Amino acid sequence: MVRHRIEYAAAKTAFRIFGALPLDMALGLGTGLGQFAFSPFRVRLDVVEAQIAAAFPDRNKDWVHRTARGCYRHFGREAAELVRLEGSGGRDMLSRTSHVDEVRSVFHSHLNQGLGAVIVTGHLGNWEAAGAAVASLGMPLAAVVKRQSNPEFDRLLVDSRRRIGIEPVYMEDARARLADLVRSGTSVALVADQDAGNRGLFVPFLGRLASTFRGPARLSMSTGAPLFFGAAIREGEGYRVILEPVETETSGDDAELELTRNWVQRLESWVRRCPDQYFWFHRRWKTLTPDPGDPGTER
């Protein structure tokens, strides 16, 4: 398809340009592109500002507007980082990532014999940087990804992820493959903070109940593998990597709900610390719960 070939050529060109530029110039260009998306193009700006305002009702309109602007600039900068991955294999990014030794200690101290781990994250900071950091800990890592409609562009992303030590698993294959991967010693990473529709668990997130995927908790419970919340937060020209154990003392359905609540609470804590690094563009609260007064329910 002609459109696919044009998209692929454009992506390869962007990879070459950003990869050839010095880091500060590449990040500056990405930040500028994010600024253009914010103004004058206003890409999904109404959605972004409405969701920030609802999550931070005590903040005024100026703060909401500044945070939205910071969000666009942040993700423009992170897009520049991602296209640079293709050439560097993540080495440059890892050299600018802190707290890796601390994460390594937490990770290995919680592993169960012979099993991998389940690592859940959200659209916060730079989730590809988080994957690169975890992949550097010395254990095989797979990540659930969405298949791109353009097969050439999809192959480009798959190859880029493999260079940083991440084996992609397409969403449509996840149910059949993930448990076997974890039982064989491979850790699995899932970005799980989008709306899960009517079949999700409703747990509190930034002041409202949000339909949330059951997968991370279920995978941990069914395999006996530890569950972690992970993220890579932008700090200056680098990142701080985070890996926090998510645990529960309950069992059965209560454990599934409790584990889901707990990892979402960890995500919320970090979003409140750096709200301009959260991906406010997706409609996180699209599915409404039948009982808005319930602090966490199953539907």
Order of helices and strands: HHHHHEHEHEHEHEEEHEEHE
β-strand amount: 15-25%
Our count of helices gives 11
Secondary structure tally: strands: 10
Gyration radius (Cα, Å) is 19 Å
Contiguous uncertain segments of 5+ residues: none
Global morphology = globular
Fraction of residues in H or I helices: 40-55%
**Mean pLDDT level:** 92
Major β-sheet profile: 7 strands, mixed
Terminus-to-terminus distance: 42 Å
Widest sheet, order of strands: 1-9-8-2-5-3-4
Which class best fits the helix and strand makeup?
alpha/beta
Q: How would you sum up this structure, described in words?
A:
The structure is a single chain. This protein is an alpha/beta fold and 299 residues long. The chain has a domain at 90-298. Helix content is 52%, strand content 17%. A seven-stranded mixed β-sheet has the order 1-9-8-2-5-3-4, with helices on both faces. It has a three-stranded antiparallel β-sheet with strand order 7-6-10, with helices on one face. β3 (141-145), α8 (151-163) and β4 (166-170) form a beta-alpha-beta unit. α1 packs across α4, α3 (45-55) packs across α4 (61-88) and α4 (61-88) packs across α8 (151-163). The model has no long low-confidence stretch (mean pLDDT 92).
